[in-house]
Amino acid sequence: MEQTFVMVKPDGVRKQLIGDIVSRFERRGYTLRDAKVMTIPRDLAEEHYGEHRDKPFFGDLVQFITSGQVFAMVWEGENVVENARTMMGPTNPKEAAPGSIRGDYATDVGENIIHGSDSPESAEREIALFF
Ligand code: UDP
Fold it and tell me: Domain total for the chain?
C-alpha cells in the first residue's frame, strides 16, 4: 500500500494545528503508520531540502524548518501521495483555495504550515531520512 511523508512545520505546531491536520487525514480514510514530535537538526534539514540547495531561499528555509518542533508522520492508503498534496494546496498559500490546509491557515510561501512528499520516490527517501 502506498505511503507518504507528511510534516507539520514549526509554524503549524506553533499555531496548534497538529490535531486538525491529523484529523483531516483520518477523515479522508488514511492510516497513520508512524509519527513523532522532533526538532530537525541542521544537517537533516539540509539533506531533506537538498534539491533546493542552490535556490536563493535555501538559507531561510533551513533556518525556518529548524526554528522549532515539527510533527513528522507516515500516512498510508490509496493514492496518498497525490491526495495529500491536494489536501495541502499549492506551495504558495496565496494560490491555495479555502478548504485546503494552506488555503485555510497560511499566507506566506516561506511559512506554509505543512510538507508532503511530491512523488512516491520522494516519499520513500523522506520516510527513510526521518524514521
Ligand atoms: N519555498 C520558499 N520560497 C519559494 C519556494 C519555496 O520559501 O519561492 C519553501 C516553501 O516553504 C516550500 C519549500 O520551500 O514548502 C519547498 O519547496 P517545494 O517547491 O518543494 O514546495 P512544496 O513541495 O513544499 O510544496
Answer: 1
How remote is the CA of residue 110 from the centroid of ligand 1, in Å? Answer: 7
Q: Is residue 96 part of a domain?
A: no
Give the domain range for residue 53: 2-83+112-130
pLDDT given for residue 103 in this prediction? 98
Asked if residue 91 belongs to a known ligand binding site, the reply is: yes
Contacts of 40 (CB under 8 A, 6+ apart): 48, 65, 66, 70
pLDDT tens, 25-47? 999 999 999 999 999 999 999 99
- Ligand 1 atom having least distance to the Cα of 85: 25
What global pTM score does this model have?
Answer: 0.97
Ligand 1: which atom is nearest the Cα of residue 88? Answer: 25
User: Does the annotation place 55 within a ligand binding site?
Assistant: no
For atom 10 of ligand 1, which residue has the closest CA?
Answer: 110
- Residue closest to 48 by CA, chosen among 101, 127, 114: 127
- 22 domain-assigned: yes
